[in-house]
Write a structure and sequence with these properties.
0% strand, globular, mainly alpha, 74% helix, 151 residues
């Protein structure tokens, strides 16, 4: 948990890029859902404290993002090809938008203005995150099997 907090704090400070959302989506299917909920709740509260956000903003953004991911999986079933990671991309995009909208709403009672630059930057971050999830899933699947590494 310490490494996730350290890497997330580093990348958010440097690139405004969240490693936490990648870890959430990778661990979602890898561990038991009860353990997953406890880990995500603790990490998101600690992340809100470290990044000086209102408590619960990250947890609420993650929750809505995970629900949107499962709803998108109803429309696009999970398979092992690149286009099946489109729901991950859209859910991560929802996470970044919600994170920027909910923090000022909870702290000040007003929405933040979304600019085209921020939306394009969120799309780029979401695309990078979805590609990283795809690559990590391929690597983890190949480590579990005895096949050669195929990308």
């Amino acid at each position: 948990m310490f490494f996730v907090l350290a890497f997330n704090s580093f990348f958010i400070t440097l690139f405004s890029f969240s490693v936490f959302i990648i870890v959430v989506f990778i661990l979602m299917d890898k561990i038991d859902w009860r353990k997953w909920i406890v880990i995500i709740a603790i990490l998101s509260i600690l992340m809100d404290i470290m990044l000086h956000r209102a408590l619960g903003v990250t947890l609420l953004s993650i929750s809505i993002s995970v629900v949107s991911l499962y709803l998108l999986f109803i429309l696009m079933p999970r398979k092992k090809f690149v286009l099946s990671y489109l729901p991950y991309f859209l859910s991560i995009f929802v996470f970044y938008i919600l994170l920027s909208l909910l923090n000022p709403l909870i702290q000040n009672g007003s929405f933040e203005v979304l600019t085209w630059g921020f939306i394009i930057f969120s799309i780029i971050k979401s695309l990078i995150s979805a590609i990283l999830i795809w690559v990590i899933n391929i690597i983890m699947d190949n480590f579990r099997s005895n096949k050669d590494l195929l990308i």
